[in-house]
Amino acid sequence: MSQKPDDLDALRTIITALDPFDESERERIMRWASEKLGIKNFTPAATQGAPLAANTLNIPPATPGGIKDIKSFLTEKNPTSANQLVAAVAYYYKFEAPVAERKNSITKEDLLDACRKATLERPKAPNVVMVNAAKYGLVDNVGTGAYEINAVGENLVAVSMPTAGHGNSGKKRNTAKTKKAAKKK
Q: What is the end-to-end Cα distance of the chain in Å, rounded?
């Protein structure tokens, strides 16, 4: 006879694993785990102090001191491809936008509006750009023309794309190929 799993043991394991991380990293890890496990509407504890509208929509609040406008966010993240642009816009509207502007998914209209506000060149075929970002695995198609950032896209924007003052300036990484080229010189 198998023993019933102990939820408190699971809780202890999770707490021990997350202990070395700061609050924003813990929330990001929990969102990723929730997505991987198929848990819908995961709401981090940080939303408890947020206005009721944010809690009702299960949308996390802006990070403390977070960027509030799309132009500043896209300037900081400096997307270098159309796929990165879609991921950055979806990330902004889900996690960084003012609470009243938050949304779980974006459409081509949101992408075009973000480009307009950030004074970026607008994609000629925004539908194709959105589909390609989904095929690339950065966003998920969640309805007719609606796309939501997933864990891969979230990781790209939050960790890999440039962040002011965090050492990732968008410069090329020193890969084995560039090391070989440098040795030949």
A: 68
- For residue 81 the two structure tokens come to 């491809």
- Maximum C-alpha span of the chain: 68
Tens-place pLDDT, residues 21-67: 888 888 888 888 877 777 766 665 544 444 433 333 344 444 445 55
Cα dihedral sign, 148-36-158-45: positive
DSSP summary character for residue 125:
-
As given in the structure block, the two tokens for residue 166 are 């965090």
65: left (phi over 0), alpha (psi -120 to 50) or beta: left
Question: CB count, 10 Å around CB of 30?
Answer: 17
Q: Which tokens belong to 164? A: 């002011």
On the question of pLDDT at 164 being above 70, the answer is: no
Asked if 69 and 62 count as a contact pair (C-beta separation under 8 A), the reply is no
In the chain, DSSP assigns E strands to 139-143, 146-149
CATH architecture of the domain 61-167 equals Orthogonal Bundle (1.10)
Which residues, at least 6 apart from 21, have a Cβ–Cβ distance to it below 8 Å?
29
For residues 28 and 158, the answer to whether their CB atoms sit within 8 Å is yes
Question: With bands split at pLDDT 50, 70 and 90, how would you rate the model's confidence at 107?
Answer: very high
